[in-house]
């Protein structure tokens, strides 16, 4: 994965999509900073968890094995096919 790639992550049953903004390596791991898109559900979850625990659990970096690349063209096709199925 590289800067600019579209990635997804599943956290607490919520699928998130974002763009890689930064990459750094530490020992054998790569860590990424991600700009998440339409991420309101995750933000609400983190806010609620912070209210309960008093701890900010929102990650600033993500280890490479927690992210998956996805091509934007494929994601667009998936959404178009889904919309078509709903019309049937």
List keywords for this structure.
88 residues, alpha+beta, five-stranded antiparallel sheet, 2 helices
Tell me what you see in this structure.
The chain has 88 residues and is an alpha+beta fold. It has one domain. The protein has helices at 40-53, 72-87, and strands at 6-11, 14-26, 29-37, 62-63, 68-69. Strand 1 and strand 2 form a beta hairpin. The protein is flat.
Mean pLDDT: 93
- Major beta sheet summary: 5 strands, antiparallel
How far apart lie the N and C ends?
37 Å
Order of helices and strands: EEEHEEH
Given helix and strand content, the structural type is: alpha+beta
Computed over alpha carbons, the radius of gyration is 15 Å
Shape: flat
- Count of the separate structural domains: 1
The count of DSSP E runs of length 2 or more, i.e. the number of strands, is 5
Strand arrangement within the widest β-sheet reads 4-3-2-1-5
State which percent range the strand residues make up.
35-45%
Low-confidence runs (pLDDT<50, min 5 residues)?
Answer: none
Helical element count? 2
Helix content: 25-40%
């Amino acid at each position: 994965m590289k800067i600019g790639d579209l990635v997804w992550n599943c956290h607490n049953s919520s699928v998130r999509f974002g763009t890689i903004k930064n990459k750094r390596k530490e020992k054998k791991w790569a860590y990424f900073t991600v700009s998440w898109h339409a991420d309101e559900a995750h933000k609400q979850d983190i806010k609620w968890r912070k209210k309960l625990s008093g701890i900010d659990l929102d990650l600033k970096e993500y280890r490479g094995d927690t992210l998956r690349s996805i091509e934007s063209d494929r994601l667009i096709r998936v959404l178009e096919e889904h919309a078509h199925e709903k019309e049937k």
